[in-house]
Each structure stands twice: as structure tokens, then as C-alpha cells.
Amino acid sequence: MIWPRFVDDALQERADGALVPNLSLADFWIANSELKEEVHRRRIKPGTEFWMCEGQMKVAEVVVTDLLEGLK
After folding, report:
1. Which of 1, 3, 24, 72 lies at 20 to 30 Å from 37 by C-alpha?
2. Which pTM was predicted?
């Protein structure tokens, strides 16, 4: 599982429940450290594209622009 924390234009985290614009930035956190090492480290790099889903519904299209510590 990967969890997003949406940020504003100043890269400050948005409050829970805040309106998120259609085009926005987010920091993503990998919740399962085992998957981080075994799966995500090999698959996630700048340019990687994926969907965010809520249940079976696709709710956002994502493009990785940079990696924070942990996957580099």
C-alpha cells in the first residue's frame, strides 16, 4: 500500500479533508516496509506512471517526478 499526503504550492502538507485541486503535488509513503524493499525499490523511479484507486474505482493518474529518501 502506498499512502499520499497532498501538498500545496509551497510544499506544505494539506490538512486532512482539504480540497485537493485536480492537478496537485503529493508525497507518497510506502506503508509496508517489506514491499518497499522487495517490490517498490525496483519499480518506482522518476517517470513511473500509475493510478490511485479507492476500492475498484480509479480516482487519480500519477507521474513520479522525484524520489525522496528511502528508494534512491
Report:
1. 24
2. 0.71
